[in-house]
Write a structure and sequence with these properties.
CATH topology: Rossmann fold
Number of helices: 6
Strand content: 15-25%
CATH class: Alpha Beta
CATH architecture: 3-Layer(aba) Sandwich
Distance between the termini: 41 Å
Structural class: alpha/beta
Helix content: 40-55%
Order of helices and strands: EHEHEHEHEHH
Number of strands: 5
Largest sheet: 5 strands, parallel
Strand order of the largest sheet: 2-1-3-4-5
Amino acid sequence: MKVSIVMGSISDKSIAERVAKILDKFQVEYEMKVISAHRTPYKAIEYAEKAEENGIEVIIAIAGKAAHLAGVLAGVTPIPVIGIPAKSSTMDGLDSLLSVVQMPKGVPVATVAIDGGENGGLLAVQILSVKYPELRETFKEYKEEMAREVEKMNSELGSN
């Protein structure tokens, strides 16, 4: 199982690192690349066309401002694309969010929150867990651990 984390710019690296931390936790192999939908559009198309034959099963695209990277990749590849809109200096990330989430019919991009690296990684794990049952079990354990942490917080407060 392999995930590709594609950044539109190196400025998206901190988000990509949060994705990678989640994928590491679940022992999912990944690669990181910088490919710009605007500055290197032909490279973006070529990359997306070859992703499946290169063993990529999920693409996570991170971009800010006019964040067209996820849409460009999704328009070319048959594999799932997760878009993570990056917070930008102009509209606090709303421009990025709208660029990623407002896709035309037939070109789906699963979109998580602005700067949502952790959820992007978790969604990739969930997608892969359809094919890899052992990953689904590990994900269930992760969710159970989160629930235990909440219960611990309640007990520390003296609540039930």
